[in-house]
Amino acid sequence: MQEHTHDYLSPPPRLDLPFIESAQAQKHVTHNEALERLDIMVQLRVQQFNATTPVASPVNGQSWALGTTPTGVWARHGGQIASYVGDGWYFIAHGPDWRAWGLAEGAFKVWDGSAWGTIGLGADDLNNLPGVGIGAASDPTNRLTVSAPATLLNHAGGGHQVKVNKASAADTASLLYQNAFSGRAEMGLAGNDDFSVKVSATGGTWRTALTAATGGGAIARLRPAGAGYCARRAGTRNGVL
Predict the structure, then answer these.
(1) Other C-beta atoms within 10 Å of 182: how many?
(2) Exposed e or buried b for every residue in 133-153, given b needs 16+ CB within 10 A?
(3) Weakly modelled stretches of the chain, pLDDT under 70
(4) Global confidence as pTM
(5) Which of 22, 35, 181, 212 shows its CA 20 to 30 Å from the CA of 119?
């Protein structure tokens, strides 16, 4: 594959398009050269960013954003746009703020003068976020905050699980229900691995209303008068409360 090379007499400063000179012969050559460059640069789309190895069978009109040390016919054109036009490679040196869509990356990127940076958020930018707020602001404790009339967690073709995990038995994995941000009811694993339901009238003093023991399967509930617990063994006549 041959390489196209061009000499421009008076190129404009931004897109480096060739001018038709006064009394120039074969003016169509210069004009077509400008159209060829525009066809590549306008709505720029590249097969891949930071490409280094020329493909074996390029398709007419395909372009690649080259890395710093490309090889083969791309050598000596690091950091440029390589386009396959007709029967050879055409190279364009892009400038700051040029934008291009990368097919391999599925991302829209901009050239900052030294590298192609993603515009907006890419897939990797959504990992390890310090916090996400939907309709409200997150904080260091409530790193995911949602303020909405409802929150829907739907299945993707089957069932759906909501998982609340804790590091050790002494920690808490629970659902807390509040009134004006003051706790009123809590259910889950609170300080041990037994499932419990707790209630509070003030958010300060809590009473355990129901406990399901992890090991033996016993279910215990607090007597209404608060005198103690009534324990029932699963599988007995009165085992279901």
Answers:
(1) 11
(2) eeeeebeeeeeeeeeeeeeee
(3) 1-24, 27-42, 121-124, 223-241
(4) 0.51
(5) 35
CA 126 to mean position of chain CA atoms:
3
The per-residue pLDDT for 167 is 97
Give the DSSP letter of residue 221: E
Q: Residue 105 and residue 49: Cα distance in Å, rounded?
A: 8
CA distances (Å), 21 to each of 28, 31, 117, 170, 215, in order? Answer: 11, 11, 38, 83, 91
CA distance 120 to 117: 9
- Residues 81-130: tens digit of each pLDDT: 898 887 789 888 888 888 888 999 888 889 888 888 887 766 667 888 89
Q: Which residues, in sequence order, are CB contacts of 33 under 8 Å at separation 6+?
A: 6, 18
- Which residue carries 């229900």 as its tokens? 177
Sign of the alpha-carbon torsion through 183, 184, 188, 194: positive
Distances in Å between the alpha carbon of 234 and those of 193, 219, 228?
17, 7, 19
